[in-house]
Recover the amino acids of this structure.
């Protein structure tokens, strides 16, 4: 079961209305989405880490709230575009698995934002995640930062950025 509100943190799923105005305290969780109910999403863990870190903004999750029924393709893509354009920070986590989570859309989104607004992106992947070498190179080239190989550390780094910019 999914929970949408954690204290002062608001989780917005792709089955909810999109974020249509810029929000200083918002994080979009970019990364592969499981295409089978047998494969767990990494995003519930990310939400728990942000809550434990005291985040009191909006977390944009490009998955439906029930974890099963996705909006139609056009609505999903429109929702993601609105969220990516109007959030403060993009956390790109790429736990790529060539059988269960290819992250092909993630590659496109990542490359787009590296070209458009690289300092908005915080990127990581587990050590040994396949086919991430170019993402690593591009992230370091465009931001001067190294990829982070731990989801918790990645999220807390993004949270620090939001907190510093809102002081």
């Amino acid at each position: 079961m999914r929970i949408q509100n954690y204290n002062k943190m608001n989780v917005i799923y792709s089955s909810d209305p999109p974020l249509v105005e810029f929000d200083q305290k918002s994080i979009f969780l970019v990364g592969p989405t499981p295409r089978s109910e047998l494969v767990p999403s990494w995003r519930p863990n990310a939400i728990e880490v942000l809550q434990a870190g005291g985040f009191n903004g909006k977390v944009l999750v490009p998955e439906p709230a029930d974890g099963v029924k996705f909006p139609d393709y056009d609505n999903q893509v429109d929702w993601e575009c609105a969220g990516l354009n109007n959030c403060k920070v993009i956390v790109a986590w790429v736990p790529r698995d060539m059988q269960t989570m290819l992250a092909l859309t993630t590659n496109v989104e990542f490359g787009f934002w590296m070209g458009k607004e690289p300092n908005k992106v915080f990127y990581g992947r587990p050590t040994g995640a396949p086919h991430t070498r170019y993402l690593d190179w591009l992230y370091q080239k465009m931001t001067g930062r190294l990829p982070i190989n731990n989801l918790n550390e990645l999220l807390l780094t993004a949270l620090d950025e939001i907190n510093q910019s809102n002081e």
Residues 15 and 71 are 6 Å apart (CA to CA). The helical segments are 43-52, 73-86, 104-116, 133-143, 151-165.
